[in-house]
Amino acid sequence: MVLSARVVFWAVNHVIRSAVPPLVPFIVQEFGFDSGEAAVLLSAFFQGYLLTQLPGGWAAQKWGAKAVAQLNLAGNTALLLLPMLAGRGVRALSLCLCLIGLCQGPLVPSVSVLQRNWLPNGPMRAWALTFVSMGGRLARLVAAGTGPLLADRFGWRVIAYLYGTLAAAFAVTFTVVASELPALELSLATE
């Protein structure tokens, strides 16, 4: 249970991160942006992402990785819908993408704390880490492969609705089921 929650958490974030850049050409085409505006949109996510790496690690240590992960999931879910509400301006859309990046930034630091707390020590830890990272890689492949196809067929907004809905469902499940220190609880339950 703990390992699968960790894999899905990593996968949800990588799906969102991998789905955003391939959508930019569809957004550019719909709104008639030029190549300079397209570049602004492509870089907006990563500008936000870089700003929250260190604060995300500090927050995970101070308030707990689960709280940071919950903010990450809630922010991603809400912000996936904002580009559709942002209007036609490149500034509004790039702000939405930057905010998604801000929510994604704490992912790696909070996941490091979660891994320390969630994954078992001993010989099975290496296997668990490999399994977890494989979830993110598979999610990126799925998102990068299916995102443009779905956007081409149904429009780019369907990606935000689909991934936003999946992220929301997992966010609720994660909030209800996940614990800050499941490895400790698991070891106490077996004693």
Protein described:
The structure is a single chain. The protein is mainly alpha-helical. Helix content is about 85%, strand content about 0%. The chain contains nine helices and no strands. Helix 1 runs parallel beside helix 4, helix 1 (about 1-30) packs antiparallel against helix 8 (about 155-175) and helix 4 (about 65-85) runs antiparallel to helix 5.
Break the fold down into its secondary structure elements and pairings.
Layout (H helix, E strand, L loop, with lengths): L1 H30 L3 H17 L1 H11 L1 H21 L4 H15 L2 H12 L5 H31 L2 H21 L4 H9 L1
Helix pairs in contact: 1-2, 1-4, 1-6, 1-7, 1-8, 2-5, 3-4, 3-6, 4-5, 4-6, 4-8
Relative strand content: under 5%
Provide the succession of SSEs: HHHHHHHHH
Biggest sheet features: none
Global shape: globular
Q: Stretches where pLDDT falls below 50 for ≥5 residues?
A: 183-191
Number of helices: 9
Terminal CA distance reads: 19 Å
Query: What Rg do the Cα atoms give?
Result: 17 Å
Mean pLDDT across every amino acid position: 78
**Total beta-strand segments:** 0
Coarse structural class: mainly alpha
Q: Helix amount, in percent? A: over 70%
Supply database-style keywords:
191 residues, mainly alpha, globular
Short structural description:
This protein is an all-alpha fold and 191 residues long. It has helices spanning 2-31, 35-51, 53-63, 65-85, 90-104, 107-118, 124-154, 157-177, 182-190.
